[in-house]
Amino acid sequence: xxxxxxxxxxxxxxxxxxxxxxxxxxxxxxxxxxxxxxxxxxxxxxxxxxxxxxxxxxxxxxxxxxxxxxxxxxxxxxxxxxxxxxxxxxxxxxxxxx
Length: 98
What we know:
By secondary structure, the protein is α+β, with helices and mostly antiparallel strands. It has helices at 15-30, 56-65, 70-77; strands at 2-10, 37-41, 47-53, 79-89. It has a four-stranded antiparallel sheet with strand order 2-3-1-4. It is globular and about 35 Å long.
């Protein structure tokens, strides 16, 4: 299992648009093999996401397939700065489904 972590600063006033397009994009990625994602907002106002993938090959193919999709273009227009995009291999999973 591969986890990809993202962190962004969003243009003021475009937070709702970012959240909406992030959700639309996540639904598109689910159809391409994503195992889902969660979006968070920190106290400093930055948005973070944790996306889960079976492996990097699946993730990279999904991103390439949807690279020019209008949803992701709109999402990226909301971003002023990307602070982080890191991958990590899952060692242990003790998530509890709410």
